Amino acid sequence: MHDPDSGVSKCIEFVLTVLLGSDWLENEDLRKLIHYGDAETCPIGARIIIRRVDTLWQYEGGPVPFELPLEKLEGVPVLFGEATLENKAGKLLVGADIIASSYFLLTRFEEITPRELRDPHGRFPGDESLPYRAGFLDRPIVDEYGNLLRSWLKRIGVALEDRPKEARKVYLTHDVDIPYRWHKFTPARRESVWRFKHPGNGPFMDPMLNFLGWKQNDPEDCFDWMIEQDAKLQQAWGRDRVEVIYFILTGGTVLPDGNYSIKSRLIKRLIKKLIRSGAAIGLHTSYEAGQRPEIIENEANRLREVCEEEITLNRHHYLSCREPEDFEYLLKAGIAHDFTMGYPDVAGFRLGTSRAFSWFDPVQKRQTELTVHPMTVMEVSLNLKTYMGFNYEEAYAHTMHLIDQTRRCNGDLNLLWHNSNLTPDLAEAGGYHRNLYERILNALANKEPGMERAEGGR
Ligand SMILES: [Zn+2]
Fold first, then answer.
1. Given a cut of 60, is residue 452 above it in pLDDT?
2. Measured in angstroms, how far is the CA atom of residue 457 from the centroid of ligand 1?
3. How remote is the CA of residue 236 from the centroid of ligand 1, in Å?
């Protein structure tokens, strides 16, 4: 049967659930107070009318145009509609279409309009995104719309509890791209020979002894230190609020993959150690599977075999989950939680929200069981010259600013630091991530706001 609505009502329901959470799902009286449409079609009992703009609901292809700078309603940028709010005969008329604006961001709508805009890794470039170009990537504006809507509901007399200005949950996550430096014969032999010829650079046999598994002082191996650092925050905030996740590569045959084998004794031992520390293990979907998502299920099963436990968490290597609907393949692979959603080149709120939500497929217009955990920051976005190119203080200020924005919206922190950027070797060579990571965790543990300096900044 032809559906004249074409699934739009499902899209609207999805957005209102994200904006108001359980208050929307469970409070029948509250639902009757909000009307999405115009004043003429407004039911008698509705008191908040959000004027509907049909740009997305009747979308027929091509880029969605925006005129920059965007108008702001109560300080929040508006993507569709007008930045107006009127009180007329006891009804609040909202000119800003915060429903379509949220939908655009939450579903990565601009990534399918058109699809050609991709970087050399097939990813949508963050610096081409509307949030970046319009200057609000550092603000979870969907959460801010939610707060506006709650404030309007309160204004008309609905009793709603204030959300605490605290992060709900912290995910300390680590992608294990290069667990060890000397676990393969060629690099181990090369280093041993070099040390033999250049005395004073450490025992020359160490690399080969590491390769043979007789010694364990590989310079890449800083997992004990990471476990210790992460545990400090868990002790301060409680294990129920701080979850540690290591994402492990299990497949891929193209160049950025294949640094280690999940079947090797060394990696199996590492996984056991991480599990013993209380960390969760997730799948680091390979670069190749970013190109061919149909192989994700195999990769997940390989990890299940080694861990002998259910694997339901995922993050894509290189953050290269290319097309929005590729999430379907995660569901098929038995994945329930994804942690990929940040732009590699610019840190910020790619989906406009800091709060985990159930993914909605914009192509099939279908609500799904996949929980998307928006990324707060990935460390290499901060320092790489081709990305943000921040020095140590700038990187700290920007990260604390994003943390502060998350706190204000009672969101979730999803921090990504690779083990390979936390080694003492790299710190000695001038890399700042080991110090930065420790400083950020300390600031969180001590509940230091840390945002005074960042507030006026980025
Ligand atoms: Zn990776």
1. no
2. 30
3. 29
